[in-house]
Amino acid sequence: MKYLVLLIGDGELPPWSEHSEQEQAEVMRRFEAFDAACRDRDGVEILAGEALAGPDHATTIRTRGGSTVLTEGPYAEAVEQMGGFYLVEAPDLDVLVELLRILPPYDMQVSPAVDPY
């Protein structure tokens, strides 16, 4: 099954630029450990994953009554902001949750993909 994992900052973690080089290196080690654990686990594959630019770089697109409007900024102003995502194929949610514990302490939203057929 495919799962979308959203990595969400909760407002308590400092921005990346405020981490020391040592803290940045430790965070990156945890991402690398997650990648390696997924590669080593049968039935698990990272299909996509990226860090995301901050909310100041977001564009919201809304369609109402056939009209499309673009606005600068995130969909909703909130303390929590998406920092990145993974699209992961895993046998089940329990396996994925076990692997996600390797990542830095983000809040995460995990949503299974729905087979359209």
Automatic annotation (TrEMBL):
SUPFAM superfamilies, alphabetized: Dimeric alpha+beta barrel
Top-level lineage group: Bacteria
InterPro entries: Dimeric_a/b-barrel, YCII
Ranges where the YCII-related domain occurs: 22-106
Pfam families for the chain: YCII (PF03795)
Family assignment from sequence similarity: Belongs to the YciI family.
Protein's name in the database: YCII-related domain-containing protein
Source organism (scientific name): Nocardioides flavus
